[in-house]
Specification:
- The complex is a heterotrimer of chains A (about 325), B (about 270) and C (about 270).
- By secondary structure, chain A is of the alpha/beta class.
- Chain A folds into 2 domains: about 240 residues, P-loop containing nucleotide triphosphate hydrolases (Rossmann fold, 3-Layer(aba) Sandwich), CATH 3.40.50.300; about 45 residues.
- Chain A is built from 12 helices and 12 strands.
- In chain A, strands 5-6-7-3-8-9 form a 6-stranded mixed β-sheet, with helices on both faces. A 3-stranded antiparallel β-sheet of chain A has the order 2-1-4.
- The two termini of chain A are about 35 Å apart.
- Chain B has one domain.
- Chain B contains 11 helices and no strands.
- Chain B starts with 5 loop residues before the first helix and ends in a 6-residue tail after the last helix.
- Chain C has about 270 residues and is mostly helical.
- Chain C is built from 11 helices and 2 strands; from the N terminus they run H-H-E-E-H-H-H-H-H-H-H-H-H.
- In chain C, strand 1 and strand 2 form a beta hairpin.
- In chain C, helix 7 runs antiparallel to helix 10 and helix 7 packs parallel to helix 11.
- The two termini of chain C are about 25 Å apart.
- The chains are: A alpha/beta (about 325), B mainly alpha (about 270), C mainly alpha (about 270).
- Chains in contact: A-B, A-C, B-C.
- Chains A and C meet through helix 1 of A and helix 1 of C.
Chain lengths: ~325, ~270, ~270
Amino acid sequence: MGNEALIMNNVCKDFKVLNRHEGLKGSIKDLFSRDYKTVSAVKDVSMTVERGEIIGYLGPNGAGKSTTIKMMTGVLEPTSGEILVNGKEPYRNRTQNCENIGVVFGQRSQLWWSLPLIESFKLLRDLYMVPQKDYEEMIELYRSLVDIEPILHKPVRQMSLGQRTLSDILAAFLHNPAIVFLDEPTIGLDVSMKDKIRALIRGLNKEKNTTVILTTHDMGDVDALCRRIVIIDHGQKIYDNDIEHLKSYFGSYRTLKLKLADNTWEEMLIDEKTTDVMDVIMEKQKEKKITDIKILEISTEDVIKKIYEGGTR
Amino acid sequence: MRKRGLKFYLSIYRKILIQDLKSKMSYRADFVISTFGMIMTNLAGFITFMILFHNFPTINGWDYYHMLFLYGFSLVALTPVQCFFDNNWNLRFMVQTGDFIKYCFRPVNVFFYFMSEVFDVKGLGQLAFGIGTIVYAWIHIGLEVNVLIILKLILFLFTASLFMIAIMNFAAATCFWLKGSGYVMVIMFRFKDFAKYPSSIFQGVFKVIFTFIIPIAFIAYYPSLVILEPGNVPLLSWLSPLIGLLFFFASYKFWMLGVRRYDFTGS
Amino acid sequence: MNPKRLLALTRGGIMESLHYRLGIFVTLFANLIYLVLVYYLWKAIYDSSGTDVVNGMTFSDTMIYLILATALFNFLEMFVVWDMSRAIQSGKIVLDLLKPMSFRKYTFWSYTGNHVVQFVLTFIPTFIVVMIVTGGAIRMGLNLLWFIIATVFALVINYNIEMLIAPICLYTESTWGINIVKETIVLLLSGASIPLAFFPEKARIVVEYLPFRAVYDIPLSILLEKSGSDTCEGLLKLFGLQLIWLVILTVAGNIFWKIAVRRITVNGG
């Protein structure tokens, strides 16, 4: 086995769906219809993830992200192509594969709803057959990274969303898996909780050299955690490289912020190659009085927005 | 690779069960209501039975006490499906919302993990009710009592429960293929009400169907004949433990096939 | 309330039920098997009894009654208790309460679509099969019209029973328990599992004045012209009973729902 935690070669996934007709008449027609169409959710995606990497796996809604994650975790079988997780095909060895992965789906707890967290941990310890010594070490590590005391004896159903997410992430790392999949781990959380969760993920990744595959719509997560990102859209991989490299695509872009007389900030994205920043400011000044000016490097958020809108080339 | 054998699964189940019971104690209202519900269903079943016999003293040559025995037998045979496999009722919703996916991320058997999540205490009330009925009928019929017969009774009660579990597994697993299949479970659960009547009432092709396809005849009739008619036991009664295992295994395979087939588009 | 809006809900409900196409066929098939079970059981029962008529019911009377009761059961079946318990547990109930329509009305009208589909796909075929098999045991006359009216009343009464029980979900998570209690009581006392004619005299007198009878027994008695529904006076008596329960249950349901909603708003769902 090499140093790759995950390899995907030309992976495709098709779904068969019924062609639905509109309206009440259409519904009656569908009752007997055999008119299926094939939808390709993932088209020919290849990538390699090294051990210990944190990868941001991005794409607009419906791009095929969760289908990919489901294939990586062994829940779905690829229509064609090959996936290797820790050197094995996840779909063929689902149970074995599960020993080596951890999964968190934001907002969808996998813990026992009515049990205190510590009891869930103990059950997971037994399910994954984690030796007692390793288990205790892991709990110690958790203690050093976050303040788990207040939630340890609380049933999951009584936790706030933030505490629940935190618990789910801790549970996903408990058996020290080689790869952890985090699907929108910070969705719906407040700013300070987001920070806490990001720090926790970073800490666990550093301590245990765990590979993390992170899907998110929150660029704050990406900035805080990932060096490399993979972007897919319409089922196809459209980008796979460092964030910095991506930003250099848009190196000539600047975010221009102008403070107007009425104390509001106006923001615009400008390509320096085609437009002169000074011209824009002058033009604006004719309409309104400007009290302050800021020129910023393009943010990750803006880069991704540009890409989703189709601006890679 | 570490092996997960029967011992592992038993010990996990026991641990989950203990935790589950502990947490259930803290929701007393739920417990009271479901127990009340259980008593009500049993009472209603019993009343139906009494009304029937009030009008018709024998059915197909079976008198009141023999029928009562069959009734008690079917109640006890239903207990395991209610206690250990009750989560089947939630399967449809989990599949629809996509929440089912969480059961696929653990290094244990999905079927086991799913079923282990719910243990239903209320089935125990039915067990008591069923045992009481069997004992009452037993005394009135004047059946013999010895260790061998008791052992036989336990074996064949266990056999009967396998069939019921299998039927409910099949019914629940249809939701992997069919949306809106909730009714399948409801009607299958109602089919079990017919287990308490002697299956000799069926004729022709339906006799075959209700024996081998929807095995209602095995939920009480065939297994109980071993006890009720010791001098005249049909071959199918003796074979029922084997057939029961087959049915259970087939239903398990069908359930697992559903998990594989399901495309998890719900999430 | 704008009737167009209500009809839109009904139409949506119809489309949604048709969406589950295989489910519909499976339901039909499962019903057929269930009816076979019912047939054999009662055939054996009548064969063993030695007489053709028990409590004024012949074998074919009993069969028609039970078959149509099953068909009515499918057609009237609602999952309000389950829906509500899910809505409460997931917190979705708060969103439902915010809809620009009262929750009770909304639920009722979205279910009518399902009722229409079930009526066309399960009740009518069953009815036709029964008609053909029994060769005209059901008279085709005004009784059909009275039956339809009684069924609409039954539908509303059934809905109100559901709505009276569903809010209990706010106080417990044992949805199964609540639902099973409701179902067994309704099935037993409404005559869906055993025709009320078979009940012992004293029990029957009590059961005849309970609301459950109004759901299955009254429409079916009217259709089969039993229980004195062949006279004008008897018919009025049955409709009167339905109407009284309809009013009582609607009012009670409304009051209970208001109390329950207050609990949601107090506890924040």
